[in-house]
Amino acid sequence: MAIELPPLPYAKDALEPHISANTLDFHHGKHHNTYVVNLNKAIDGTPMASKSLEEIIKASWAEKNMGVFNNAAQVWNHTFYWNSMKPNGGGKPTGDIAAKIDADFGSYEKFAEEFKAAGATQFGSGWAWLVLDGGKLKVTKTPNAELPMTSGATAILTMDVWEHAYYLDYQNRRPDYMSTFLDKLVNWDFANANLKAA
Ligand SMILES: [Fe+2]
User: Fold this and answer.
1) In contact, 162 and 64? CB cutoff 8 Å
2) Cβ atoms within 10 Å of 137's Cβ, excluding its own
3) What Gene3D superfamilies does the record tag this protein with (predicted)?
């Protein structure tokens, strides 16, 4: 069963002016789609072809089959990233995640500082994450395609800090993109749903 490119959970221009339709056109339509196409090419005719995306990620990581892992993880990461944002999102969290952030980081401001620092200090391409690890919320970062799943942590939110995520709208200003992600885009409903399911 081939892995499919999921549609964006909102219209292509729904995140404007913060993330342009042009960026989403390339990022979803080209980058995300290419990971899907390359993954299907790599697993075609192998035992991986009958596995779920999560199973492919875990198996390829265990086997250090990076050609499969990098594409599979990037398919998963991007779908998770689209859902980590919403139109008119951003700002302080609500619901259970708000209380848990206060408990585990001290305050939303401390979390935001740590999350942006993770994104800023991820040299080159990668991801900043809010994860649940051992019952506690933590901020982590991963290089390239790596993701919390392989270390047993549960992803709650992610921010893509590959240049292709922001270059068309922000050029080299990664800090501006990260602030906008938190202030205008982050989807706390998705974070609450992931926390509840963890
Ligand atoms: Fe990306």
Assistant:
1) no
2) 20
3) Fe,Mn superoxide dismutase (SOD) domain (1.10.287.990), Iron/manganese superoxide dismutase, C-terminal domain (3.55.40.20)
